[in-house]
Amino acid sequence: MKKYIWPALLLGLTFCQEKGAPITPVEPTPAPRQIAWQELEYYGFLHFNMNTFSDREWGFGDEKPEQFNPTALDARQWARVASEAGMKGLIITAKHHDGFVLWPSAYTEHSVKNSPWKDGKGDLIKDLSEACKEYGLKFGIYYSPWDRNHPDYGKPEYITYMRNQLTELLTNYGEIFEVWFDGANGGDGYYGGANETRKVDKLTYYKWPEVYELVRELQPNAVMFSDGGPDVRWVGNEHGEAFETNWANLMRDSVYAGMPDYPQKYAPGQENGTHWVPAETNVSIRPGWYYHTYEDHRVRSLANLVDIYYNSIGRNTSLLINFPIDTRGLIHENDEEAILKLGEKIKEDFAVNLVSQAAVSASVERGSDYVAENVQDEDYETYWSVPDGQKSGSLEIDFGKPTVFNRLLIQEYVVLGQRIKAFSLEKEVNGNWEKVTEATTVGHKRILRFPDTEAQKIRVNFLDSKDVPVIAEVGVYHAPKLLLPPTTKRSTSGEVTLNAPDTNLELYYTLDGSNPTKDSQAYTGPIPVTKATTLLASSYDPATDKISDPVRLDLDLPKGTWKAIGDEDAKAIDENTYTYFTSKNGRLTIDLGESVEIQGFSYMPMQARYPSGIITNFEFQVSIDGNSWKTVASGEFSNIVNSPIEQLVRFDPVNAKFIRLKASKTADGNGATFGEVGVLTN
């Protein structure tokens, strides 16, 4: 019998070589729950809790259950909007920092069970869970570890309370796809009525390994989110933008929720990270996370939402877009309109994959199981690769005729690990190859945008990889051009300049709050604005008879006659948000030039990738003579570090010739910085 062994073995080896040898995974690799999560790509956040009714971003914990009283709450409306927008799931703020919970928890009275809503018999977590099932959506929960209301926060007893509540959430409401742990921990609060500051060791206090074990036991298919995972990590900002180079790998054991240097050191992931912890991009559809009436007209534009889509899902992250549920208990009409427009635009951009009917070939193939055609079959489980020992290779795509395109989509088969470190796109021009664009990492999905390009043949070059490239899908698309609104700039004298985003466009504007049409005021030069005014401006394309969504500017008094006092710097009143002033004494004093009636102020924090001195707690004073001062507002800018947007603070009308913004506390203890300061007169 031995004489048959070698021929049989040779036949087997030949067969294996023809098909191609199995590919060795590059560690770390994702768990099945992480793969299922990343395939969702796009889902919604719902911020609805006590803050909705106290009109805050972060409640202090002194709120009363009777304040929670939505008039027309409809969880089915939330699920319908998400489904129609193309989202695959919803995550609800079951408990935010103020400690109020949206289910009738047996462990606290600070709950919907003591609110007027449904006469205290409501369970919003149950309602939403059932609505998600009806609309085919996954269901997830947000739970804040910090609790500004609970009397035992900071003590061991609170950890028991937290686990008891998590057990309720994870056992009574069906399957959970994601458990979202916030990184905000410890600080001021009304802990059982005690108005004080309680700090905790964010690394050790919550005993995270035991919390993770509890979630694994009760919801084994759920992923857990926090700054460092353990399953999904934070992208590092709340702007809706992932890093250009973005690894799913992370030095996970070095990370904990709320760590101060996380955005700089860990948010992009690490090429040699020890664990698979892909990023999630979380962003709100409005400036704030919770509903505020004054933000009804500050919903993100379609252009901004499209950028967010490409800068998140297109950069190897999932996208979590937040809806601030209004006091009725509904997704506001403006938010619904915006998110449905995004859904329509994304469908339009990716309607036709030009690769599907093209001829695809490779510089080299691993074997018959790993051929070039696998990247065009729309089956993620098939892929192209190269022989062992090679870390580069190319795919050539022939459309058969000159074809216009402006999008490139690539997916690695990340079940075997993330590999690609650099790639480029070229087009053939008269027998030569010219570069169109290039980038670094790919991961689950990478999408590149570039100007309209025409070619019959293109080539995707995988220039460097941790091991053999493993490419599941390649897509090329021609996305229709999005008509963008004009860009704007205001001078200190109050004049507003509009600039068209493209050639051959006409610009129209209004000053009464209405949306511009081609019958509105045509823009011919700078627009003088000397008082509180709402300006909306749109671009109009006469060739297509289409008009863009408007850009909205809520303008107030011009700053041309204002003066900074003492050693303070005029960069805080120069109408340029990218300049800033650092105060030696933690305050900014401004002479308005004349006495005016004001009803609030605005503060734009320093705008930079690595900002410093952001004011978190403030005092605002006014004066008629510059000597005698009156405090008219004080408090905190909640969540300003993660979301460094313009802060608006309103108060009862008061006359002032001088104003002063003082920093009671900055986020990092450094000198207070002021990007831009203004007043509100309307």
From TrEMBL:
Keywords: Glycosidase, Hydrolase, Signal. Its EC number is 3.2.1.51. GO terms for biological process: fucose metabolic process; glycoside catabolic process. It holds the Pfam family Alpha_L_fucos. GO terms for molecular function: alpha-L-fucosidase activity. Residues 343-479, 514-682 form the F5/8 type C domain. It is an enzyme of class 3 (hydrolase). GO terms for cellular component: lysosome. This is alpha-L-fucosidase.
